Amino acid sequence: MSTENIKVIVRCRPLNKREISFNAQNIITINSNAGQVIVNSPDKTKTQNDTPEEHFQQIFTFDKVFGTQSMNIDLFNQSFKSVVQAVTQGYNACIFTYGQTGCGKTFTMTGEQSNVGYIVNSFDCIFDYISTLPNSVQIVLKASYIEIHNEKIKDLVTNLNDLSVNESKELGIYVGNLSEHLCYTKTDLQIVRQDGYKTEIQLQHA
Ligand SMILES: Nc1ncnc2c1ncn2[C@@H]1O[C@H](COP(=O)(O)OP(=O)(O)OP(=O)(O)O)[C@@H](O)[C@H]1O
Description:
By secondary structure, the chain is an alpha+beta fold. 32% of the residues lie in helices and 21% in strands. The longest helix has 20 residues, at 186-205. The protein is globular. The site of adenosine-5'-triphosphate (ATP) has 11 residues, from α4.
């Protein structure tokens, strides 16, 4: 992987039921070692002699790619863990999940009970780290949960809407009136997540 501060990871999901029902064809192959996603021409009658190579097959290279059989824990161990560990060493970090609807963002972030996503894996990682520290070290862990939608910031725990982005010498850039929740255990962190998640789901169905 590159040593750049920004890394781009691609995950390809399997065809879903709808795609299978109309005999959709998977035109993506991946080369994990090279970090490549290969988009093949859907028209198998075309050969490299018929069309310029770039039309026949397009290759995109990323810091890391994961195939349809990958598990959330594979993504975590091979990509996200180092980001979370960097936080425990005092760095700021962000994991940004992006993609069209139905591509697997929630599957990757939240996952399922037997295949938990990077949110729970990150919580485990943070508390595993804390458990290695001597009792003399005091850790203060605070959590907030926001949604940014149509340029508006909402606190998903308190339901306060339209929060402002501010800047000060002491705090740098921060969100005004954002609630922060002290978390002493993994359960405390999970409660903040669950409270915020409930609001998020309510908003999606409103
Ligand atoms: N890697 C994967 N392996 C197996 N199933 C997957 C994978 N990724 C996504 N899915 C399935 O595809 C469906 C859509 O995934 P998901 O809800 O995570 O998409 P999303 O990107 O969060 O969509 P939206 O933006 O609409 O919320 C779900 O049923 C999910 O279980």
